Amino acid sequence: MLSKPYFSLLLVSFLSVGRCQDDEGIYKVGVGIGDITGPRAGTPLNGFIGWLQAAGIYTRQYARAFAVESVTSGNVVVYITCDMRMIDHSLVEQVVIKLQRKYGEKISVKNIMISATHTHSGVSGFMTNSVDGIYEAVDNALTSAQLGRMYYTSGVLERVNENRRREGAYLRNPQWERDLYNTTVDVVMDLFKFETLDSTPLGAFNWFALHPGDFNEGGDNPLVSSDHKGYASLLFDYKMNPGKRPGQGDFVSGFGSANLGGVYTSWEEADVPPRPQPEDPDVTPRLLRMKYAGQRQFDHAWALFENVENHNLVTGPIGYSHHFVDVHVENVPHFNQSSGEVENVSLCKAAMGVAYFREFDPEGELWEIIRDLIKVPSEEMTQCQLPKGVMIAAGEMDEPWAWLPRIFAVQYFQIGTVSLLGLPGEFTTMAGRRVQRAVKNVTESNVILAGLCNNYINYVTTPEEYDYQAFEGGATIFGKNTVPLVTYWMTEMAKAVKEDDPDRIPSGPSPPSFLDLVRTEVFPAPDPLPPLKFGSIIRDAEPEYDSATDIEISVVFSAGSPRNSGLRKGTFFIVEKKIETTGRWGVWRTDADVDTLFHWRGPEIRDVEVRWFLSPDMEPGTYRIRHFGYYKLTVDGHMHNYEGKSREFLVK
């Protein structure tokens, strides 16, 4: 009998002579991961209106990619989910340019879909880290691609997400439409499983509608974090890559965003601590509330992954289509189900509404005065955006660059028997459902919604929800016809790909790039000499801990600003365990692990706290914590590295 490796080699050789076909469910599949963590200090976090700046790390930000290539046609599609709040076309453009230097026209904006998880604890700006990390993820996926199979499955995950407009805007949708669904929020998780021809798992990617804003709930937590979707991904990676540090295993998982507009965590309050007050500096309650949603998503994804009886082999062609929408000129037909007539619809110049800002200041009485000080909207905009009251006429403001986009992308992937839709913003539950139903009517396939893809056009509501003018309607920047227009293009792209004629979809005008106006380098932060030399221990570990009763270990070091450290792929500290047989030290934890955190308390204090949260099943032994950093005495001075080390301590 042939051994498994020899059998796999023989099978690959046999299939490679021409019997590998899409309809057999055999593709070239690959996965990859890349670190996209931005500056960890002195840079605003992207998620809430305010000036909260990063001050350390709970979990790193990653880009997670899968690539599927047809053996029959050579068509390839690449999907990447990134631990970021949003994606800008300039970032997509730079990633594609970098990939084309290696892969040529195999990769273009048409067949690479870059999605944001929408974490509210990611670093703003500084695209260099993002571009490099996304490139690494895609390059790893393409380089590692091998003959294999992929499976699709789905399942209901209840009591973890809720529609915050279920009693308001959602009820404006027609009764007949609401009656099609049992819930006011999408509770289905879709999942792809990738494996080699000999059934070795390569990766798992899923999509579920839930806003990742729990770790920075209230906008007052300064630690960089991938929030609950990144947390769930790390749990999955731990499970499949035993002994490997985060971001270094061969197996890659991804928890992607879907139609998450207005969809937030549904708490079982008995299972989580109360929401902390803004003045409470302890991040532990926020950590536990975030972990609740992350654990629930991981548990469900793992159950779907393991339940092979419900896995459906993906078969059929690989195809894609892409279109840039020019808001100022597009005019498309739309069947109005309320009137029963076909009408032409167009979009408005982008504007943010008063309803959006009232979410933050419900009693504000000076909105019109403030608006007029910024820019008085034109009569054309005012009428087009009704019933929205225009607060910021961003579509009529272009200094120093356009305040909101004029051009955005819509994208469609056919992956065998599954359609993957690249939605360009935060679609509400029913907005996503409408697009999904329309495409399903065309393709008769399973349809997955991937949110926040390739660019960001803020929230997107249905026309009926828009008329209600809640927060989400106020942030639907192109007006009430956004969903009808996106639906039109998604169905047209689906038809074109189904009929093997994707080139009939016009490309549309490419968005302008603003990279020459954006600062991408990280300016160093000078570190005046602290009372103790850099790396010195301010508060050391205790000599001994009992993991059954002690909750955490904390060490405080005198430190320079983390802003001065590149370390995109490194770590600011390691927890080391002594190997008793040799006396050497091995890495046990880094700043990427889910049971550690790193808090920069400066620049006034100029120290960092490393916290390691213990679990009752912790492996006993002797440990120590080492911190690595850089300091710069003046802006123009030399960069100096330093290291600090705790005492050795025993964990029982």
Automatic annotation (TrEMBL):
<dbReference type="Pfam" id="PF04734">
    <property type="entry name" value="Ceramidase_alk"/>
</dbReference>
<protein>
    <recommendedName>
        <fullName>Neutral ceramidase</fullName>
        <ecNumber>3.5.1.23</ecNumber>
    </recommendedName>
</protein>
<feature type="binding site">
    <location>
        <position position="211"/>
    </location>
    <ligand>
        <name>Zn(2+)</name>
    </ligand>
</feature>
<dbReference type="InterPro" id="IPR031329">
    <property type="entry name" value="NEUT/ALK_ceramidase_N"/>
</dbReference>
<dbReference type="GO" id="GO:0017040">
    <property type="term" value="F:N-acylsphingosine amidohydrolase activity"/>
</dbReference>
<dbReference type="GO" id="GO:0005576">
    <property type="term" value="C:extracellular region"/>
</dbReference>
<dbReference type="InterPro" id="IPR031331">
    <property type="entry name" value="NEUT/ALK_ceramidase_C"/>
</dbReference>
<dbReference type="Pfam" id="PF17048">
    <property type="entry name" value="Ceramidse_alk_C"/>
</dbReference>
<keyword id="KW-0378">Hydrolase</keyword>
<dbReference type="GO" id="GO:0046514">
    <property type="term" value="P:ceramide catabolic process"/>
</dbReference>
<keyword id="KW-0732">Signal</keyword>
<feature type="signal peptide">
    <location>
        <begin position="1"/>
        <end position="20"/>
    </location>
</feature>
<keyword id="KW-0479">Metal-binding</keyword>
<feature type="domain" description="Neutral/alkaline non-lysosomal ceramidase C-terminal">
    <location>
        <begin position="491"/>
        <end position="651"/>
    </location>
</feature>
<feature type="binding site">
    <location>
        <position position="459"/>
    </location>
    <ligand>
        <name>Zn(2+)</name>
    </ligand>
</feature>
<keyword id="KW-0746">Sphingolipid metabolism</keyword>
<dbReference type="GO" id="GO:0046512">
    <property type="term" value="P:sphingosine biosynthetic process"/>
</dbReference>
<dbReference type="InterPro" id="IPR038445">
    <property type="entry name" value="NCDase_C_sf"/>
</dbReference>
<dbReference type="GO" id="GO:0042759">
    <property type="term" value="P:long-chain fatty acid biosynthetic process"/>
</dbReference>
<dbReference type="GO" id="GO:0016020">
    <property type="term" value="C:membrane"/>
</dbReference>
<comment type="similarity">
    <text>Belongs to the neutral ceramidase family.</text>
</comment>
<feature type="binding site">
    <location>
        <position position="426"/>
    </location>
    <ligand>
        <name>Zn(2+)</name>
    </ligand>
</feature>
<keyword id="KW-0443">Lipid metabolism</keyword>
<dbReference type="GO" id="GO:0046872">
    <property type="term" value="F:metal ion binding"/>
</dbReference>
<feature type="domain" description="Neutral/alkaline non-lysosomal ceramidase N-terminal">
    <location>
        <begin position="27"/>
        <end position="484"/>
    </location>
</feature>
<dbReference type="InterPro" id="IPR006823">
    <property type="entry name" value="Ceramidase_alk"/>
</dbReference>
<feature type="binding site">
    <location>
        <position position="118"/>
    </location>
    <ligand>
        <name>Zn(2+)</name>
    </ligand>
</feature>
<keyword id="KW-0862">Zinc</keyword>
